[in-house]
TrEMBL record, chain A:
Protein name from the UniProt record: (2Fe-2S)-binding protein
Keywords from the UniProt entry: 2Fe-2S, Iron, Iron-sulfur, Metal-binding
Gene3D superfamilies (alphabetical): 3.10.20.30
Keyword ATP-binding carried by entry: no
PROSITE patterns, sorted: 2FE2S_FER_2, ADX
NAD listed as a keyword: no
Essential cofactor(s): [2Fe-2S] cluster
UniProt xrefs under Pfam families: Fer2
Domain 2Fe-2S ferredoxin-type: 20-123
Taxonomy, superkingdom: Bacteria
Organism: Rhodococcus pseudokoreensis
Membership in a protein family: Belongs to the adrenodoxin/putidaredoxin family.
Automatic annotation (TrEMBL), chain B:
Domain FAD/NAD(P)-binding positions: 5-302
Species for this entry: Rhodococcus pseudokoreensis
Lineage, highest ranks first: Bacteria, Bacillati, Actinomycetota, Actinomycetes, Mycobacteriales
Superkingdom field: Bacteria
Required cofactor(s): FAD
Keywords: FAD, Flavoprotein, Oxidoreductase
The protein's name in its UniProt record: FAD-dependent oxidoreductase
Amino acid sequence: MTDIRRADVLDPEAPDTADPRIVVIDRDGEHHRLDWEPDQSLMEVLRDNGLPILASCGGTASCATCHVFLDPRVTAELGERCEDEQELLEETESFDTARSRLSCQVERSTALDGITVTLAPEE
Amino acid sequence: MSDKPVIIIGSGHAGVQAAARLAELRWDGGIVLVDQEETAPYERPPLSKEMLKSADPTALSLLRKDTFYRDNNIERISGRPVRTIDRAARQIELAGGVRHSYHRLIIATGSTPRRLDVPGADLPGVHTLSSHADALALQKALTAGSRVTIVGAGYIGLEVAAAAAARGCDVTIVEFRDRVLSRVTSEIVSRHFESLHRSNGARFVFGAGVRAFEGDGRVQRVVTSDGTSLDTDIVVVGVGVVPNQQLAADAGIACDDGILVNPHCQTSDPEVYAIGDVARCLRDGEPRGQRLESVQNAVAQAITATNHVVSQSCEVKTEVPWFWTVQHGTRLQTAGLRHESDDIVVRGSALAGKFSVLYLREGRLAAIDTVDALKDFVPAKKLIAAGAALDPARAADPSIKLAQSQTDIAQ
């Protein structure tokens, strides 16, 4: 069930609006433009907008159910994954060295305005 | 349209997930989330972990941002306990007498810390930990230099012990059994955590129950079952929980240490569901069923129940249960449910502080504990779900990937 109710479906013709908005591509390939509010982790943006991530550990890098792909340039900007994040991600089937992150470990920063986030397949 | 309201009682992980899932499934008959607490629904795990150590005592991790409920047409009724369920009328009655009709009812009332039935159990200074208010009270009490006695060496007891030690308290842990975490793990993991706590200054009293709490106006001594008296300033009781089933039992719904539910989470009244800590799920081949106290179970049961409410979906997603705890920075993650009789394979070295314990039942992986060895956790969950048979010698070798110790893939 990947029916999304809340997130606005992105109109590709619409002009880019001011940041801090992000574009999220769900598992059906649908695009959503979401606001990223201060104090939210990336996982919280996804969860609070009704995107289907379980995030069952509440954001403590324990479960790998909030796995996303980011542009490699963005992941480079974010710096090293912590050991827990690395170990969890490495064992997922869809792990991508350059693009995989646990969204619960990604805090908002101006460097991330306007990024595109792709939900990883469910494990 | 709200002609078919689904009322959810309780807004912990299970209740909030149920409400969110109904919204996601576009349930337009009405979604009502009732809770006796005033505060917006919040995460429980940090209460005994990060929050007790946090400098900001009011820090609260919300389960959803506060606009989420309004944006999703979820009506919240907070600060109002439910008094009765009137199944004949399909209504609940709140304290104060207001009644609400339901099309389906989901009970997610959770659990309450078990109290010790001994003299002095109600003395000021004797704490339990379950709600945000409990955590605030405890955090205030855990001042540097105070003597803290913790009764029970389970997850909660040990997490509090770690937080108390980190705040400079003098910690003693009284445990009825002969080792810590005895209900949830094997000896090797128990001893590892015992030594972790000892090296952080905690003392243990094993094989002892509590006979009484004593003190003049507030707790000052814990008297153990062998008559030893331990001077103390604060007591934290962490001896398990009891399911909050009274409301259901009063309404004539079948209960037995939990509200009994079928794999769709329906109770003995098919219009009433129960999920999370309060539910005991009966499945074929499990005589007494299972009641699981975990976020993972709360979330999975919420999804199962709401799928059934919305579409009568009979697909039951059985997930491998999992649990975690963090103490003094050491993380234990458990997947699956071990039996005492399982064969044990140790993978890695406890001395090096990074290892996993595998529990094999008739050669198949039934459960795992990982201690700061998260890389085994994700593959183990899949192997447990698949009922994979493992070669014990290969599984014991951490240089071989866990998935490659499977014996049935080669055939």
